[in-house]
Amino acid sequence: MPDIDLTQFSSSGNDATPLRGYLARPPGEGPWPGVVMIHEVYGLDDIMRRQAERLANAGFLTLALDLYSDGGARCCLVSIMRASLKGEGKPFLDIERGRAWLSASSECTGKIGLLGFCMGGNFALLSAKAGFDAVAANYGQVPKNADSVFEGACPIVASYGKHDWTLRGAAAKLDGALSRAGVVHDVKEYPKAGHSFLNDADAGPRVLQPLQRVLGVKPEPESAADAWKRIDSFFLEHLR
Asked: Does the global pTM surpass 0.70?
């Protein structure tokens, strides 16, 4: 079954807090390069599981973590957002548990990337020095202390939408910070896209979806297709 329980798995030997995930295997026989995937704010829903399967079909053993495993979104969201602002806390430990789990798997080559959407994109950027071989951040917030965060970071590919009012100027800001840090990178802003444009369906509670569309939070297939091509190419280059 693709749903797995990582609760008893700890990279440090002293962390047994709840952690679940969804494992998507590529077709054929491994081993394969691995990817830890971090969901957007709405959690590890069907849309995110399809994203994991899409990565697997591109040749990556994909472990999509559920950062809400320890109590659900209502219980975890505030503490997770605080951790994102601080750059430390349980979500980062869980991301490391995911990386270590893949590293220990006989199905993984040992080359491991990290990919995140929205909230997960924030964590992806903040984890670019956490032992990963490449990072893909989709509409992730650029850290305030970007120059220090990205010094010595692994290669990063990032995608943004021009109509994402929550992240205006983020693509240019990230591109500049990565250039100053000497990090190999590919950052692109899509002129027809908004937030969550890589999703294949509207996310979140149905009652909020009309408002989200007004705010530009919706799929944009043409931009998404190009972004996925860039992500696949970037990961193939740096994980193989």
From this structure: yes
